[in-house]
Write a structure and sequence with these properties.
By secondary structure, this protein is of the alpha+beta class. It is 31% helix and 10% strand. The chain has a domain of 79 residues: Winged helix-like DNA-binding domain superfamily/Winged helix DNA-binding domain (Arc Repressor Mutant, subunit A), CATH 1.10.10.10. Strands 1-2 form a two-stranded antiparallel ribbon. The chain has a two-stranded parallel ribbon with strand order 3-4. Helix 3 packs across helix 4. It is globular and about 45 Å long.
Amino acid sequence: MIDSPVGRLRLIEQDGAISAIEFEPHDDRRVRGPRADDHPLLVECASQLAAYFAGELTDFDLPLAAEGTEFQHLVWAELRRIGYGSTATYGEIAARLGKSNAASRAVGLANGRNPIPIVVPCHRVIGADGTLTGYAGGLDRKRVLLALEGVTQPADETPALF
């Protein structure tokens, strides 16, 4: 567990890779072993997250092992290509995957099922009109994460602090 500007986060390691990062309230169904905050990979993940939140890290370098479908993995790989401080729309991600704009909804569903938020930056995906749309961690957290990265938000979208 670590404290962050978006609340307490639980980091989950499985077989030498980060398999989940959870916002409170945590999903106890994912935990498959005893708590070990001193595990070297969890310590490294916490360190990289702290550097990200301090504005000192823009790209994570961690082994990841998210459980998901083939399509979800394709979407999550595209999310990792969205640069720090940048955004992309669901339609843009669909196009990058060679799909039509009609696949935007499927991209949105895969985005919402991303089990490793922040590191796999699903918060960088916005609506076609530039507005902030759903985020599994809640829109307040999405606003904070985008503000940390210097992303200009619509005037009525102000970051909330936790």
